[in-house]
Amino acid sequence: MNSRERVRRALDRTGPDRLPVHYEGTPEITRALCEHLGVADKAELLRVLGGDLRYVGPAYVGPERKVWPDGSREGMWGERYAEIPYGNGLGTYPEAVYLPFAGITEPGALADYRWPTADDYDYSTLPAACEQVSDYAVCLGGAGVLDFMNGLARTRGVEQVLLDVATEDPVWKLLMEKDFEFFYTWAERSLQAAGGGRSSWYIAAKTCTQRGPIISMKAFDDMFATFYREMFALAHRYGARNIMHSCGSVRFFIPKLIDLGLDVLDVVQVAAEGMDFAGLQRDFGRELSFCSTMCVQTVLPYGSVSDVERETRWRMQAFSQGGLILAPTHAIQIFTPLENVLAMYRTVGSLRSDR
């Protein structure tokens, strides 16, 4: 059974030969794993770990994105990112250091702004890219797609975005419309080129902290729901599955997301309030599949190899007929013991010995 068939059978709950798996890690932990296993790069690491998903996308052909004298890099909306150290300098994360819409108070101020467009991408590259990974489950999009709260906070500021939602600020509404307009067109052209039936469409929604929602259901219904319903329906028209990345205590929103058309919830942050995995499976497992669930805050960095093995075996038994893609709940961090990471993949049976 190849990866594509394994993931399909897991999502259809028709009994894959093993749990499908995925890998996400910071660049630092990825390099450490590559060195430990004697492999050249992340692509080879995914092969050795037995990863069943591969991400593809159209080639960017739009205006060159600048690198500024301070080393910061331009993003798609004109924001800039710099590598900010964390963990006593053991690693870095790209954080927004310039917010182009932070001081904008009237939509008219953006009348002449150069917005990203779907024409900035060459979709003719996708068939060949998909063919190169034809044995795998193909994912289009990523964790930044339609991530209105977190994504637009990187252009406007976290506090401002929270105020925007509360006040239904006209600038915020314009930015949401521009975000949706770009990604909807980008998604449709990508699904057309890739052949949607063999794809999954990956988007994001950051609406919660680890203790609960940061917006009300009314705010979600009024400002977010229509966009997600339309995007989910688009993927389904092309025979693709919808995967949504949503960290934190998202249980409050799960029934609404199912109603809107969500197929797979990622990352299932089990350490967050209300996110007990057995309870989620009991209450939503017939209608919703899950991705991730192996906690990067508890068992992977601080548990023993035996703890990781136990947690993995529980998932293998509980989801033997499908409904789960096993993966870490976020990017694995640099302080995580490599033995714990490998124990997860070894126990599930995906780690290859022919490396």
Please describe what this structure looks like.
Helix content is 41%, strand content 15%. It contains 14 helices and 12 strands. It has a single domain (3-62, 120-348), classed as TIM Barrel, CATH 3.20.20.210. It is globular and about 60 Å long. The longest helix has 25 residues, at 170-194. The strands form 3 sheets. It has a 7-stranded parallel sheet. The chain has a 3-stranded antiparallel sheet with strand order 3-4-5, with no helix packed on it. The relative contact order is 0.15. With 355 residues, it is an alpha/beta fold. α13 (305-318) runs parallel beside α14 (338-348).
Observed structural traits:
355 residues; alpha/beta; seven-stranded parallel beta sheet; globular
Short description:
This protein is α/β, with parallel strands linked by helices and 355 residues long. It contains 14 helices and twelve strands.
